[in-house]
Design goal:
48% of the residues lie in helices and 4% in strands. By secondary structure, it is mainly alpha-helical. A two-stranded antiparallel ribbon has the order 1-2.
Length: 229
């Protein structure tokens, strides 16, 4: 996956230009096999995160096989959410895989940290409280943040669920998903996922209080064109 993000988490998405007017009503049912698999994957994710906690505390390293597996779970879960609940931005059925799928409409990657702070691992849950207060508005509850927006229903919860529902209702009546809402939803999703990878010890980079909207990650400052002519 090509990296353009200044943050260790990279989320890139494209809005399906051929969304059907009605399919969003049944996507959560069609995605039911994924929910069953993800239930077990999240159990493993949590167990591996506990193992990673002690590994970081002792060695300052997140074991690479555990890291790659947990990134795979994030990819899988994000694809299902993007299809069935939190954005509803594609009609393409999510693949059953932990691997990156280059041609799927949403892609997730996290840069592997060579070293992590052994002291910081003890207090991340405390440092992230201000972020959780913001994220509580975006999803239904603090626990939903830790479950990564796994509200699998035709009408989601919180601000993200409300706005995605507005978007697909507009789609149903006009045949077009409003681009402005898509960009805003992706900003909310990106913010929430940055908090998630921080609290699950996958990075030491504190999530910025910033809404990076749109399907593409913002370019790193050093790569942006210089202004002033």
């Amino acid at each position: 996956m090509s990296r353009t993000s200044a943050h260790p988490l990279c989320v890139e998405a494209t809005l399906d230009p051929r969304l059907t007017r009605w399919k969003w009503l049944v996507k959560w049912i069609l995605a039911f096999p994924h929910y069953i698999v993800l239930l077990f994957l999240w159990i493993v994710f949590l167990l591996l995160s506990i193992v990673a906690f002690f590994s970081i505390l002792i060695t300052g390293r997140y074991p690479r096989p555990l890291f790659d597996f947990n990134v795979g779970v994030l990819r899988w879960n994000t694809r299902v959410n993007y299809y069935a609940s939190s954005v509803l931005g594609t009609d393409r059925y999510p693949p059953f895989t932990l691997k990156d799928v280059p041609d799927y409409p949403i892609r997730v990657d996290v840069t592997y940290p060579k070293r992590l702070s052994r002291g910081l691992v003890l207090v991340k849950w405390l440092l992230v409280i201000p972020q959780l207060m913001v994220i509580m508005i975006l999803v239904s509850s603090p626990s939903s943040v830790y479950r990564h927006l796994d509200d699998y229903s035709p009408i989601g919860s919180g601000l993200i669920g409300l706005l995605s529902t507005v978007a697909v209702v507009i789609l149903m009546f006009t045949g077009s998903y409003p681009r402005g809402l898509f960009d805003f939803l992706m900003g909310l999703l990106r913010w929430t996922m940055r908090v998630l990878v921080y609290v699950y010890l996958m990075t030491d980079k504190y999530p910025p209080f910033r809404l990076d909207m749109g399907g593409s990650e913002p370019m790193p400052a050093a790569a942006q064109p210089a202004g002033g002519g």
